[in-house]
Amino acid sequence: MINKKVANVDAALNGVKDNMTFMLGGFGLSGIPENAIAKLVKLGVHGLTCISNNAGVDDFGLGLLLQKKQIKKMISSYVGENDEFERQMLSGELDVELIPQGTLAERCRAAQAGFPAIYTPAGYGTEVAEGKETREFDGKMYVLEHAFKADFAFVKAWKGDAAGNLIFKGTARNFNPVMCGAAKITVAEVEELVPLGELDPNQIHIPGIFVQRIFQGERYEKRIEQRTVRSRG
């Protein structure tokens, strides 16, 4: 069994450079790779293309990279919680590609499975399909969407072992699984790194073959994106 464990986030991000393309798991602020994002901020890499369902909030998640002007392009499906994102997009500082959420997931999954492209009905007849190949199957029109190409995928899991086997918890099981193995190098940060053989094989969501590096993260904030409570009395 190949040991994928690395000592810390510094070793996990070895090889990260300017102008790379990254996939980052998470949905809103749930299940985001907090340690990897914080390290990317400290490294100061620029010119990044980031593939993520959303862009975090102004002072957390990918919002931290946006504050430092480290991202040149965002490929996302929902970006409505970040004022700095909006400002940079409207000013032309940030290139933005908005994708239907299901298409975003399937383009990740296609890369994971080694497929060069997929056909999807989502977006046909809209701006999403402009300039793209379309084809009819059984009387229904589909749009050709290419699989993503990324240098690194950064994902967050609940538990993992040294072989890279991963278990996700709750809503964190969102875009993280489909991004595993969808880039040249997949880095998994986990809340709990356990010895080999301790994970129940029937509970594993992603096998270690899709992961190249794994480390135990620390000091997770797990912020709530929007807290709504009922007024008292």
UniProtKB/TrEMBL annotation:
Record has Transferase as a keyword: yes
Identification of the protein by name: 3-oxoacid CoA-transferase subunit A
Entry EC no(s): 2.8.3.5
Gene Ontology MF annotations: succinyl-CoA:3-oxo-acid CoA-transferase activity
| Taxonomic source organism | Algibacter lectus
The record's annotation in PROSITE patterns points to: COA_TRANSF_1
SUPFAM superfamilies membership: NagB/RpiA/CoA transferase-like
**Record InterPro entries:** 3-oxoacid_CoA-transf_A (IPR012792), CoA_trans_fam_I (IPR004165), CoA_transf_BS (IPR004163), NagB/RpiA_transferase-like (IPR037171)
Q: What's one Pfam family here?
A: CoA_trans
Keywords of this entry: Transferase
| Enzyme class per UniProt | transferase
Q: Does the keyword Transferase apply?
A: yes
Q: What family is it from?
A: Belongs to the 3-oxoacid CoA-transferase subunit A family.
